[in-house]
Specification:
Blueprint (H helix, E strand, L loop, with lengths): L16 H10 L4 E6 L6 H9 L4 E8 L4 H9 L6 E6 L2 H8 L4 E4 L11 H22 L4 E4 L4 H14 L8 E3 L2 H15 L10 E3 L6 E3 L11 H12 L1 H8 L8 H18 L5 E8 L7 E9 L2 E5 L7 H26 L2
Parallel strand pairs: 1-2, 1-4, 2-3, 4-5, 5-6
Antiparallel strand pairs: 7-8, 9-10, 10-11
Helix pairs in contact: 2-3, 2-10, 4-5, 5-6, 6-11, 7-8
């Protein structure tokens, strides 16, 4: 039985000057991280969380918004090591911000609003992601790319096709960040079972939108779920984003939890690059585990990105039904993303 090892807490060592100095003394590499979309609702808290990561010594923040240098200056006052520099402007400025990056995290784009479909979101964000992928191909072709911009099921294929077009595609270094689905699954399962959330680990497969999100509750060790629990939890995890949009009364979507999830995933990618063994995370990647060319499932990470896409376990009959139900929608969303570049 495999398990995703993402945890909803314990992201970094306890943030004290002593622990940071000890961590710095033991590590082997320093990394430059660039956040594209750093002034937004996800970008600002994400940038702050990345500043705490001792593996990141050079934090580059880019956004069109003129406030971005101020975000970097604000974060720069936090009393942990490493630099933070903000860039605001056009594509030329973005390329400068990206230059030499080891990892690029991309929350850029318009967030989903009440009543907005994934198709509506795609029309706006597709072109944004295309421009970012072109800039990355030129400025940091060997970086790890962590895509948050929605709809992930379509924006990751867009990013891949642009990199292919530019001759810089490495399928082992492109990730759609689905960690928020795992974070929610861990939280909701812990509530349901009365467990400590830091000790819960739920693998989530499929995609990163609605019914394409499939938590594998059958893989949760020692859980005691009723049939009603499985149905309710599966739906709540898949549509958790709607819960946040509603709770914010139409004034935003999931930003803080997404920032946390992205910081968790970026940290795990860098830990693996830095030599940590047995790093396994769920991510939406160029995959072979089923008929979908991109699929979220647990992957083993290493120095150069994906070392291995782990085989799927034996699903429950309920999970098999959900996977079959999701597949046409997931395939269509992936095709929509790829065709955005291929049909020019």
């Amino acid at each position: 039985m495999f398990k995703s090892v993402t945890r909803s807490a314990k992201v970094f060592p306890q943030i004290t000057l002593g622990s940071l100095r000890q961590f710095h003394a033991s590590r082997r590499n320093d990394y430059k991280a660039t956040v594209v979309g750093a002034a937004g609702g996800i970008g600002q808290p994400l940038s702050m969380l990345l500043k705490y990561n001792p593996l990141i010594t050079d934090l580059s923040l880019y956004d069109l918004a003129p406030v971005t240098p101020g975000v970097a200056a604000d974060i720069g006052h936090i009393n942990v090591g490493g630099s933070s520099v903000g860039y605001a402007g056009d594509e030329t400025v973005m390329k400068e911000a990206l230059k030499g990056s080891d990892i690029v995290i991309v929350p850029a784009g318009v967030p989903r609003q009440p009543g907005m479909t994934r198709d509506d979101l795609f029309k706006i964000n597709g072109g944004i992601v295309e421009g970012i992928a072109n800039a990355c191909s030129e400025s940091c072709p060997d970086a790890f790319y962590c895509i948050i911009s929605n709809p992930v099921n379509s924006t990751v294929p867009i990013f891949a096709e642009v990199l292919k077009k530019n001759g810089t595609y490495n399928k082992n270094k492109l990730f759609g960040v689905t960690t928020l689905d795992v974070v929610r699954a861990n939280t909701f399962v812990a509530e349901n079972q009365g467990w400590t959330v830091e000790d819960v680990s739920v693998p989530v497969i499929g995609g990163h939108a609605g019914i394409t999100i499939l938590p594998l509750l059958s893989q949760v060790e020692n859980a005691n779920f009723s049939e009603e629990d499985v149905k309710a939890l599966s739906k709540r995890i898949a549509f958790g984003g709607d819960e946040v949009v509603k709770a914010k009364a139409g004034n935003g979507s999931a930003t803080l939890s997404m920032a946390h999830a992205a910081a968790v995933f970026a940290n795990r990618v860098l830990q693996a690059a830095n030599g940590e063994q047995d790093v396994v995370e769920c991510a939406f990647v160029d995959s072979h585990v089923c008929e979908a060319p991109f699929f979220a499932s647990p992957v083993k990470l290493g120095k150069d990105g994906i070392q291995e896409i782990l085989p799927l376990p034996e699903l429950s009959e309920w999970e098999k039904g959900l996977q079959k139900e999701m597949m046409p929608e997931l395939l269509e969303q992936i095709k929509t993303g790829a065709d955005f570049i291929l049909n020019r």
